[in-house]
Amino acid sequence: MKIILGEDVKNLGRMGEVVNVTDGYARNFLFPKKLAVEANTKNLKEFEHNKKVIIEKAAKLKDSFKSVADKLSSLSLTVKAKTGEDDKLFGSVTNMDIAEALALEGFDIDKKKIIIDEPIKRLGEYSVTIKLHHDLSAEVRVQVVQE
Questions:
Q1: What are the φ and ψ backbone dihedral angles of 32, each rounded to 5 degrees?
Q2: Which domain does 83 fall in, by range?
Q3: How far is CA 89 from CA 54, 58, 59, 79, 145, in A?
Q4: Is the pLDDT of residue 55 over 80?
Q5: Taking the model in full, what pTM does it have?
């Protein structure tokens, strides 16, 4: 089934693209969440008419994400964790812990967008990537201290 994407969908395509997917995926996931519409002649004509609006919306969204990325890059977070011997943590600092620390700083970032290269299991300073847009990310310094 051919569909027109109304939003960016990971591993499928970007907003405004016409892609081919299975019928079940379209009917059971994409259509109910309003991520896409069927690519029939009516919707294609409507899409061409609204294409400018969609492009402007994507540009504004990217600009807003760019300003957030600049603020995040200058941010340094402190996460407190319980430790044992040799400064090893009980457990590890996860992307959920970082999302909570970002929320305390006033940033509402989904934990799925926080990428940790390797598990944080010791005290110290780490660099964490936050994927804001499909081609825009920010690096945040995370300082893990003893609770």
A1: -60, -35
A2: 70-146
A3: 47, 41, 42, 12, 10
A4: no
A5: 0.66
Q: Which of 65, 100, 117 is the last residue before a domain boundary? A: 65
The CATH number given to whatever domain includes residue 44 is 3.40.5.10
* Cβ 39 vs Cβ 18: under 8 Å: yes
Pairing of strands 120-122, 88-93: antiparallel
Question: Looking at this protein, which amino acid is placed at residue 3?
Answer: I
Same domain for 10 and 57? yes
113-127, pLDDT tens digit by residue?
A: 899 988 888 898 999
Alpha carbon separation from 92 to 45, 56, 85, 101, 140 (Å, rounded):
52, 41, 14, 15, 18
Write the CATH number for 126. 3.10.430.100
Judge contact between 76 and 33, C-beta under 8 A: no
Q: What is the DSSP string of 42-74?
A: HHHHHHHHHHHHHHHHHHHHHHHHHHHHHHHHT
pLDDT in tens, 101-112: 999 988 888 888
Rounded-to-integer distance, Cα 110 and Cα 59, Å? 21
